[in-house]
Amino acid sequence: MPARVMVFARIDTNDRPAFEEAFAAVSRTVRGTPGHITDALLRSEDDPGAYILLSEWESREAFLAWEDAPVHREATTPMRPFWQGRVERRIYETAVAHA
User: DSSP for 67-99?
Assistant: First the structure.
């Protein structure tokens, strides 16, 4: 069952362009990872320092395998200097979908 991973992050609003470019670089690196389907970066209109990194994986297990692999830390390093405070991650499975 597909899994969607949401990472909630906060950055300094002055760093938005650099953070968004770092996300794009990480996204290019992750593309092609077994089990990875897609990802997107969402920015709050009400709180411009608040972001959600949204990715879709073939399964929870596929995401967790990538997250536990040494390449995960290396691949996501470009974004890490921008994060302020605690970064929260949640994994969701689709309960109902409509086409």
Answer: HHSHHHHHHHGGGGGGB-S--EEEEEE-S----
pTM (two decimals):
0.89
Domain positions in the chain are: 3-84
Q: What is the pLDDT along the chain (99 residues), one digit of tens a residue?
A: 899 999 999 999 999 999 999 999 999 999 999 999 999 999 999 998 999 999 999 999 999 999 999 988 888 999 999 999 888 999 999 888 887
In CATH terms, 3-84 corresponds, of 3.20.20.80, 3.30.70.100, 3.40.50.2300, 3.40.720.10, to 3.30.70.100
CB atoms within 10 A of CB 90: 10
How far is Cα 57 from Cα 48, in angstroms, rounded to an integer? 27
